[in-house]
Design brief:
934 residues, mainly alpha, 36 helices, 63% helix, Transglycosylase SLT domain-containing protein, Lysozyme-like_dom_sf
Amino acid sequence: MVQIRPIEAGRTIDIGGVPDTRVDNSIGQGLAQVGNAISNHADMQNQMALRRQQMEEQVDDFATNQAFQRWQDDNALDFAKQQEGMAPSGKGFTDNVSGIYTKRSEEFLKSVPDSLKPKFAELVSTARNQWIDKGAAAEIDQRNNWYRTSITERQQTLQNQVFNDPTMFDAAKQDAHRTIDASGLSPTEKEKLKKQADEMFSLTIGEREVREAQANPASITGAADRLGVPAVGSDAIGVVVGKIIGVESGGNAKAKNPNSSAAGLGQFIDSTWLNMVRKYRPDIAGGKSNAELIALKTNPQLSREMTTAYTRENAQFLANQGIQQTPGNIYLAHFLGPRGAAQVLKADPNASIESIVGPAVVQANGFLRGKSAGDVAAWSAGKMGGKASSAGQTPADPRFANLSLSQRLSLYDQMNAAAQRGQTAIDAQATATYNSEKGALQLGIQTGEISSDQQILSSRMNDSDKATLLSALRSRQGDQVMTAQAMADFQNGVLSLDPYSSDGKKKVDAIGGVINQAVAPENRQAALESLVVQSGTVPQSTMNQLRAGAESQVPAEVEAALQAASRFSQINPSALGRRDGGSAVQKKVDDFDYYVNTLNLSPSDAARRIAEQNDPNKIRERKALEPAAKEFRKQIENTDIGAIFDDSWLPFNDPKLGFNEQQAAGIAADYLAIAEEQFYASGGNPELAKNRADAEMKRLYGTTEITGTKSVMKYPPEKFWPAKPNDGDPYGYVKDQLINDLAQAFPNDQLLNPTKGNDGYRGLVEGREVFIRNEGGLTEYRTMTRDSIMSRIVLVSTPETGSEIKSNQLPGYTVLYKDEQGNLQTLYGKQWRPDLSVVSAAARKQQDKRLETATRNQVSGLGMAEYMNGGDIPMGASSAWDSPEAQQVLPQPTVPNIPVPTSQTPTVKSGLDQQRTQLFQNAKDSGLLNAGGN
């Protein structure tokens, strides 16, 4: 059941009653407040109106002030514009500015509110006056600048006139002064400008003298007096030399100091004189003793020359010591020596001279005793007609009187420097002219235009050069005699000389010069080769041409040079190395010969390779690949080269490399060299390089089985010697001929020639004795021993082999035969080749047989019937069945047409020992023999 809370009253309830009518003073107070509020509102309204008026006035004042600022900005722009149009003299500019700004002021004030006019009228008036003042200042500046510019322009004109004509100096000064006085400049500025003008004209005269000193160095003489400064440098030297001679010797070349060795015009002591003559006149000093040179002190010309040279040295020494080059100081250096003079001039002027130069000098020159360093400096200056002090004097030339001492010293230094430059140029020109004349004489001696002593003696050469030229003339005349004799000996084939001596080389060069001038170009190489044969070297001019060609990047030039150089090297292996640059050419020749003879390249291809190697870019590329090339070479060192020549699929069928270890090593070396070259050519591609090397080896080398063993060799004869038709052993004829020749060459060899006894013949095969009953058995013995004999034979391909192959001739080979003792013997003859008449006869016989068969088949048809029954197709049946004569052109070895070199295989009688020696040397060169071979 819900409980409801009861309501309780909290306050009493108003149920109405009679209102209270009592009145208090609050109403009156309220009314008073209302009245006050109304009064305050009126005051507020007045205040607001006043404030509004003030704000309006403030706005007007600010706006007018802004307008005033813009007016001022416009005034500035207008002033600048007016200033740009100002007349050069500035005349009327102030009046113009005044009129403009007065009008602008009036116009501006019209726009100013009345209340502000008093204030801005004052501001505008002040601004106007400022602009007028500024205009007046600008007018004055413009006018003064106009004066200055006009004065400067006039002075420049006058300066040019004075420089071109120094006699205009005084007139120009007067003209310049008048121009300055006529200006409106201040008196102070006028005086300043006059002084500047005077200095300018004086400096202009000085500049002219500087120019004159360079063009004519002699004009420097007297410049110190003209400028009123102490003489130094070249001017001082010129003054001093003459005065030294006057003071020292009175001009007497034989004058001598009794207290010392001083003598001659310059009073040189002996040691100084000897040093000077040897230094400056080696042409005179050469070959003369000290006594002879000292005697030359009395030579007036030489004595003056040495005095001048010594004076120049002393002046330079003083300059290096920071001492002024005055005549007095330079003379003191001559008197005491440059070091002694420097010590005196740098010493305390009050120090005693003896304490500085020593008692020996004072004893030799008694007047010095008791004097101080300052006394001696004054004495030397007095000797030269001056004073010890370096203070300036009054210039002898009044035109320099306007310049300060420092300005005059500066001009003097410039004059000396200009004189030195001019003298240097004159000396250089004189030297060039002298050298040109000397060169003409030297050339004339060489060409023969100068042929007598008088032509040299009458020239203006000095004695030293005359002596040299006379010596050259006599040497040339001797050379001509020598050349004539050498040419006669050369033409007679009896030239004999030392190729290492200078005389020997001179003879070769002289003969080479004659060959180049007198021999036709097509015959020149042969003549030079003859010279190499007789002299053992080449002319230097030829060597220079060879070197230029060998180092060219043009293949044709390389080929021509290296073919010629190779010929010289073949004639005499040392010929090239005996001349300057020859070693470098020999290296190129070795490369060229390797490419041609070993790699079997054509001369043009070999030259192209070398030309590429001469290319700096190729050299850099090759250098970059060198590390990789070395690594590549290591990788292929153990390559099975024999496998390259094994075309079969059978194992263990690789041919043998060469005929012995030495030849195998040579073939391997060739392979490595070829592979490395191909590595560079392929840009460092090892796989491509190896493939190319393998192909190159197969092109250069091949296999031969003539000796019984399949061996790799260069130019295998089977490629070039024809096979004999219809023979079980196509090269049996070669073996038979070779064995027969060996038997003749080595009659005491039992394997080749069985010895005859009472009961028959006895041969020796592999250490076993073989008995042959009668002569009929010799043929059977020879057949039986053929393989054994051939196994002892080594065929060597030589450079001649390669040359013959390239010339399409039947190649020959060096033949080595190993006897029973194991020694290699050489077969006589430089090159051995078979007699092809046997092959020619066999070929003709085969052709005749084929012609007979073809004719028979044509008549009987038998050949075709045999073919139909399974026999061979008749020879020529397809194309020449009806023409038997056509059988004669069936493919046959072109044996009869192979040209044989003119040097046919020699007989046993023809120089056997000499031929063996040559062949043995070929074998050594081919690597077949070691150092102990026979």
